[in-house]
Here is the input.
Amino acid sequence: MKPTCPGKSPRFRPRRPLAAAAAAGLLAPLAMACNDPVPPEPPVVRPVRTATVQASGAQRTRTFSGVARTETSSSLSFMVAGKITRLAVDVGDRVQAGDPIGDLDPVDYELRVQAARAALRQAQAGAVNAEADLQRAWRRYENGDGARASLDAAISAVDFAGAQVESMTKGVEMAERQAAYTRLTAPGTGVIATVAAGVNEHVLPGAPVVMLTSGTAPEVGFTVSETLISRIRKGASASAVFSAVPDERFEGVVTEIGVTTTATGTTFPVTIRLHDVSVDIRSGMTADVTIAVEDDASAAALVVPARAVAADRTGHFVFVIEAAAGRSVVRRRSVAVGGGFSGADLEVLDGLSAGEVVVVAGVSRLRDGDEVRFDLIPDPALAGG
Here is the structure.
């Protein structure tokens, strides 16, 4: 039968002093058993993953968004005005040097060639006549029948006729060249990237007709802010990962650093040339470019995995591992963070010291003072994976 604690049952009514004393003696152990406290539950020790706060070296890496382009891009255009009568290429066509690109209506230019040649023949005939007049004037002067002035005039007429012949010859050459400019040909081997004009369209000299891309070493262009441009050096190592080829990383080197800002006025253009060539890379593809950037000489920055940093309405914070009475507990610490580093790392401007251990997994379940057990990740770059 289950014992009943004193005072719990309304039927328990001791009537006599002796009986009450006896009952109190018998029930005392039972009352003590009813008042024993419940044993406390053991504290929960949460498992976490941690990493050590690292000081960055002399260089760090930054990632920028860029666009692929070929080593050489040429905007091909006619050197004379006219109406396009034929386009021999389309986007994606591969051409060799001398292959036809397009033609203008040549009729007007051929007529100019004919007119220039006629003018040349007329000048040549005039030169012949002037030479004959000079011979006659010379004979008259030798026989004493002609004046010196007549001879001088004949000599001047020959010189003038010769100059006319030379001028008309140049006119024929120019007319022939302009007629030849009505045919546009490829200056070298490449691929047609864009076609900007169409048949029957009237174009002016220098107006783009097609874009020809050539070269075997692809490039990636991107822009860098004014605060970082001074830290990038020509010849620095770089790499690119293209959205179209996400599983492959292409190594390269910085080849060009702009000295003036882009159209936005706040960034500078930078170009890297890739060592590896892939048929999967085409001009215009987007890429993430990772490049080594020199640190300021003032001090090395502290780096932590981005997953170690949390934020709430009070700001950014981390949980730092501390030893307390033989246990490992976490302490919440407010921090100030800067820009991103390579991978998933962040720069810590204030609140941490190199060598401290921070939690990188399980942050959302922690409270200040919680006891934890942890596995240390020696390299913070591994925490982002």
Observations:
- The longest strand covers residues 245-257.
- The chain has a mean pLDDT of 80.
- The chain has four domains: 47-56+300-384, 62-70+215-294, 80-105+182-213, 107-179.
- The first helix runs from residue 17 to 34.
